[in-house]
Amino acid sequence: MPDAPATPVAVSARRILVLGILAGHIDALSFAHLGGLFASAMTGNTTHLSAALAHANWHYAVLLGCILAVFFGAGFLASLVRLLWGAARGVGLMALLLLVVQAAQFGTHARLIELVLLPTLMAIQGESIARFSGNAIQTVVITSNMLKCASALASTLAMRCGASQGPALPAGAILLPGLSWVGFASGAMLGALALLWHASLPFLWPLPWLAILYVDIASTKPDS
Description:
There is one protein chain. Helix 4 packs antiparallel against helix 5 and helix 4 packs antiparallel against helix 8. By secondary structure, the chain is mostly helical. It is built from eight helices and two strands. A two-stranded antiparallel ribbon has the order 1-2. Helices cover about 70% and strands about 0% of the residues.
C-alpha cells in the first residue's frame, strides 16, 4: 500500500531511489528495443501518436495506441491489486514480468512481448507506490518530479525570506523528487551501458533491487 506520512524520509528515499533506477533502466532498454517507443513516458508516446496520425503513419500509430491502452489498463488493474492486497504484490509481479521479458529474448516474438509487458510493468510500478512520507510522487514521470523539486526549493527559500506564509512542506519535499530524478538518470545510464556492452540478460539486472524493495515493503506494518 502507499506510504503514509509517518514513514521516515530515509525509508522513502531508498524506495524512491530503487524505483527511479528501475524506471530509467527499463525506459532506456525499451527505447532501443522498440524503435523509439517508451515504456513509461506516456507524454512522449502521446506526442508521437499525434504526429503519426498527422502523417498517416498508421502502423506506428497502432503501435503507440497499443502501448497507451496497455499502460492505462495495467494501471487500472494494478491499482485494484494495491487496494486489495498491498504494494508488495505489485513489486513481486514486476519481478515476474522482467523474467518473462528476458526469457522472450531467446524466442521469435521478443518485440511483441516487450510491447505488451514493459508498459504493463511501468504502470504497475506507478500504481504500486505513489506516496512517500506524505509526498505524492510518481517514479515513472520525471518531468513532474523536476517541477516538484524546484517548487519545493522555491517555497522553502520564499518562507525563509519571509515572503511566504504558506503551510510547512512535508518532510522530504525537496529531497525525494530530486532523488527520483537522479535515480531515473542513473538507471537510464545503466540501461545504455548494458546496450553498449551487449551485456547478457539486461532485463534481469533490476531483480536484486526489486528483491530488496519487496522485503522492505512486505515487512512494513499495515498501518504504516
